[in-house]
């Protein structure tokens, strides 16, 4: 990938830029909790976006996407937003830095990635973090702190891409650390690294290859449900809600909103339980919570689909310790915690069965927990 990006840079702009990378993420547990002020427990993965970038001394940005074989050129004013949705991620990052009083001038860039798109692995956060980190380095002497870099990516989603996402994906992409998960409290923004080397188990993502699309999607509706319930309870976010509080207003809210909030309230406790269990090496508890999350995401939060539920069923049948939908849902991957000795059989069975039903095999990505956004030469 590196050579191709450098070659494309040479062809399009001549000479060399500086290479930056930022990863996608997985999440062990804590789904749809981030925008509710709850906890999440993600890690960065070994799939990344890579960009070669060089200031060009003008007020124009010129970018070439190798994966899409497409060019974009835009100015840095609000009215200059590019047409292509992929370029809006980069434009958004530039604008959000400028809005915060940071500096961005014209630059040339080529980029590519191996984070599968629409698979729930945060390819868009990887792209945002890659450029946010690069522009911080190239134009701002790294004066923008890392949390702000994550927020720049999040605001890009909100203001330029139509997704009202939480902070988890950009946070994980910026702060990722090899062999560590991060438990982030999305209310206080305090976080802790947890060493992650599961003993006798492997983590693997199984990609249904059902593409999800979060923009203008049910994702924003889920968030709106949660906000309605919080407002009705007179609290800022569902982080401060309990089941007792929710049950007390059950007749005043729609059944749909009730079940959305119920899932969130249950999920935030599961994150803490899983962190404790992980430290104690109690993988059975970790796994049980993962199955509970799947059930809640499927039945109460309704962000699953037939294919993801089938993957979950197969995991259960194969004796997989824990399995669940990962990320926003509506397609993409399940994350699976599998005992070493069951691993090969699980992978074979899930491929065969899924293929028999849907006519294509799922993709398999072993989870390799990796470092966050950085300059390529720093790795
Ligand atoms: C998407 C969003 C995140 C988070 C997850 C669900 O990945 O971008 O902010 O809400 O869905 O946990």
What layout of secondary structure does this protein have?
Blueprint: H1 2-13, E1 18-27, E2 39-40, E3 42-55, E4 60-65, E5 70-75, H2 85-99, E6 107-113, H3 123-139, H4 146-161, H5 168-175, E7 180-185, E8 191-195, E9 201-207, H6 218-233, H7 243-248, H8 255-279, H9 283-300, H10 306-317, E10 322-325, E11 333-339, H11 340-358, E12 363-366, E13 374-375
Parallel strand pairs: 4-6
Antiparallel strand pairs: 1-3, 1-13, 2-7, 3-6, 4-5, 7-8, 9-11, 9-12, 10-11
Give an overview in words.
It is a single chain. With 379 residues, the protein is an alpha+beta fold. The strands form three sheets. The chain has a six-stranded mixed sheet, with helices on both faces. Strands 10-11-9-12 form a four-stranded antiparallel sheet. The radius of gyration is 21 Å and the shape is globular. The two termini are 15 Å apart. The model has no long low-confidence stretch (mean pLDDT 96). The protein binds alpha-D-galactopyranose. Alpha-D-galactopyranose binds next to helix 5.
The residue ranges in which pLDDT falls below 50 over 5 or more consecutive positions are none
The overall average pLDDT, rounded, is 96
- Largest sheet, strands/sense/barrel: 6 strands, mixed
Structural category? alpha+beta
State the helical fraction.
40-55%
How many E strands?
13
Listing every helix as H and every strand as E from the N terminus to the C terminus, the arrangement reads HEEEEEHEHHHEEEHHHHHEEHEE
End-to-end distance: 15 Å
Please tell me how large the radius of gyration is. Answer: 21 Å
Q: How is the largest sheet built, in terms of strand order?
A: 5-4-6-3-1-13
Task: Classify the beta-strand content into a percent band.
Answer: 15-25%
Helical stretch tally? 11
- Shape call: globular
The hetero molecules present are:
alpha-D-galactopyranose
């Amino acid at each position: 990938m590196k050579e191709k990006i450098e070659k494309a840079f040479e062809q399009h702009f001549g000479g060399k830029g500086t290479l930056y990378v930022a990863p996608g993420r997985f999440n062990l547990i804590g789904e749809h909790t981030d925008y509710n002020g709850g906890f999440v427990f993600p890690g960065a993965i070994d799939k990344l976006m890579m960009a070669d970038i060089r200031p060009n001394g003008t007020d124009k940005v010129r970018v070439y996407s190798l994966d899409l074989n497409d060019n974009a050129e835009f100015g840095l004013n609000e009215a200059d937003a590019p047409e292509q949705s992929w370029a809006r991620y980069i434009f958004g990052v530039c604008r959000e830095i400028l809005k915060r009083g940071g500096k961005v001038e014209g630059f040339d860039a080529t980029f590519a990635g191996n984070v599968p798109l629409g698979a729930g692995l945060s390819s868009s956060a990887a792209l945002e973090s890659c450029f946010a980190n690069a522009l911080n380095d190239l134009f701002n002497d790294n004066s923008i702190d890392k949390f702000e870099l994550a927020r720049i990516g999040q605001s890009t989603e909100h203001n330029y891409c139509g997704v009202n996402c939480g902070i988890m994906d950009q946070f994980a992409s910026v702060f990722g650390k090899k062999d560590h998960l991060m438990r982030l409290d999305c209310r206080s923004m305090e976080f802790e690294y947890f060493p992650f080397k599961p003993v006798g188990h492997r983590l693997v993502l199984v990609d249904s290859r059902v593409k999800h699309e979060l923009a203008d999607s049910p994702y924003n509706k889920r968030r709106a449900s949660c906000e309605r319930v919080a407002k009705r309870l007179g609290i800022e976010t569902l982080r401060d809600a309990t089941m007792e509080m929710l049950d007390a207003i059950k007749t005043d809210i729609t059944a749909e909103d009730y079940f959305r909030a119920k899932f969130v309230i249950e999920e935030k406790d599961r994150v803490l339980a899983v962190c404790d269990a992980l430290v104690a090496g109690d993988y059975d508890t970790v796994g049980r919570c993962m199955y509970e999350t799947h059930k809640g995401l499927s039945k109460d939060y309704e962000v699953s689909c037939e294919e993801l539920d089938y993957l979950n069923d197969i995991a259960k049948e194969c004796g997989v310790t824990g399995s669940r939908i990962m990320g926003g849902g509506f397609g993409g991957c399940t994350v699976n915690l599998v005992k070493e000795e069951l691993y090969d059989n699980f992978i074979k069975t899930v491929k065969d069965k899924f293929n028999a039903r849907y006519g294509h095999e799922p993709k398999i990505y072993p989870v390799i927990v990796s470092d966050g956004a950085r300059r390529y030469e720093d790795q």
